[in-house]
Amino acid sequence: MEDQFIKTATLIGDATRASILWNLLDGRAFTATELAIAVETSAQNISMHLGKLLEADLICVEKQGRHKYYRFSNKEVAYAVEAMANLIPKPKDPVKKKSEEYPPIKYCRTCYDHLAGKMGVALADSLLEQKIIIEKNGAFEISIDGEKWFSDFGINLEEAQKQKRIFLKPCLDWSERRNHIAGSIGALLLDKMINEDWLRRTKDSRAIAITGKGEKELLKNFKIVV
Amino acid sequence: MEDQFIKTATLIGDATRASILWNLLDGRAFTATELAIAVETSAQNISMHLGKLLEADLICVEKQGRHKYYRFSNKEVAYAVEAMANLIPKPKDPVKKKSEEYPPIKYCRTCYDHLAGKMGVALADSLLEQKIIIEKNGAFEISIDGEKWFSDFGINLEEAQKQKRIFLKPCLDWSERRNHIAGSIGALLLDKMINEDWLRRTKDSRAIAITGKGEKELLKNFKIVV
DNA sequence: TGAATAGTTCAGTCTGTATTTAACTATGAA
DNA sequence: TTCATAGTTAAATACAGACTGAACTATTCA
Q: Is the CB of B60 under 7 A from strand C?
């Protein structure tokens, strides 16, 4: 058991592979070349590293034509990466100004395709408090009032319900240790906010940037102070 | 943020340091020398690695005379180690025989000075089931019948109560995720079993070996199958 | 006191493994 | 077809960082 743990630890604990995992953290799939660029290494090298991660079943691959898309094998991998990210030493004295206390990524990032982090949790809290969604034995449900709210907000619930994916489900955020909103509703909320230019995906698209407009609207609609 | 993650990952992902973390996983504190033995490396080397783990605040240290006791800094470290252990590839076909699945240290080890691991948990379960101890809002108490039992078993409760240390307290076991019995009672139980030659401390005193006599007595007294 | 044990520091060595160079296959587009 | 792009494999190289040896301080014990 110890040997196996050491193997896993040394597998993750290489700079290039750690960077790969970090880039895969938002749940999307990337091609080998994309990862090579993101990680800043050669194609041959990324190929070798992806091979090792594949062999240990930390990632899986899907072939599409001449492309190969790599993603996490299962959510446990994401948990482990996030749990490790939790160990990053906190800055002792908050020298920085208020909003800059942490880089945006800490406050606002995507988990697969919905909002996670502090922002995702705050959003879930607000929707719960406004009784737009309600908690029912561990699951989230949309209230009667909530249905109207979503329609006003410009989200078509019937459309969402048609999708295969789970409609509304809580997702435990490791950095906050709190539930936020996953499922298609989570994805739709994120999409909507991006379309309304409240939020913008950044270049590497893991972090989410909040626009000036978004700052005002988030405060107005959800009482979220950015 | 990514850089910091890579730093943390490479910190954990060295074979020697991973082994240190693995050994600290049960929550106990170890001296540098004990760790060097457990990890099978030199004193100088362990010192260097402990220094790095200390600097990153993954572990902390308490000085006691000429000894230095190292332990996890916080529960997040244990979470991360466990989350990583979760990624160990599952054996597809369980080829192994029953009792040899894990080395003895996994089943029977001390946590500070009381029994932890599977053995400690099984012992706590048995005492609870026999109503020798009872759980009362998260704490353990000795029942009326229990007082007689302890006296029959050769443990003087009044003596134990005089000691400063907490008399009877649950202690969460990381590998089992279950409470076992700490406090002076836990220590006395361990002492007693060692005196009766049910158990023997091994050389490095982390692991506990069960004697033939112990095997019989544990089954008889606590229905624990070793 | 001195002897033994616990732990650290530092310079030098060594080695595992990541990376590079180079030659390859497979798919898609012109 | 031929060219360009995506990705792999294999051997040669390079290097970060672990480990060793030797010399040190601090504490306990006899």
A: no
Of all residues in chain A, the one with the smallest CA distance to B3 is A19
* Helices vs. strands in chain B: H and E counts, helices first: 11, 11
**Using a CB-CB distance cutoff of 8 angstroms, which residues of chain B are in contact with residue A7?**
88
Of A121, A122, A167, nearest to A141 by C-alpha is A167
Residue A12 to chain B, least CA–CA distance (Å): 6
Where do the domains of chain A lie, and which CATH numbers do they carry? Answer: 2-84 (1.10.10.10), 98-222 (no CATH)
Q: For residue B173, give how far its alpha carbon lies from the nearest alpha carbon of chain A (Å).
A: 17
Q: Please, what is the angle between helix A32-39 and helix A43-55, to 10°?
A: 110
> Which nucleotide has the least CA–C1' distance to B66?
D27
pTM above 0.85, yes or no: no
pLDDT in tens, B38-85: 888 999 999 999 999 999 999 999 888 888 989 888 878 888 888 898
Q: Whose CA is closest to A215, among A102, A112, A108, A94?
A: A108
Residue pair B114/B187 in contact (Cβ under 8 Å)? The answer is yes
Q: CA-nearest residue of chain B to A58? A: B87
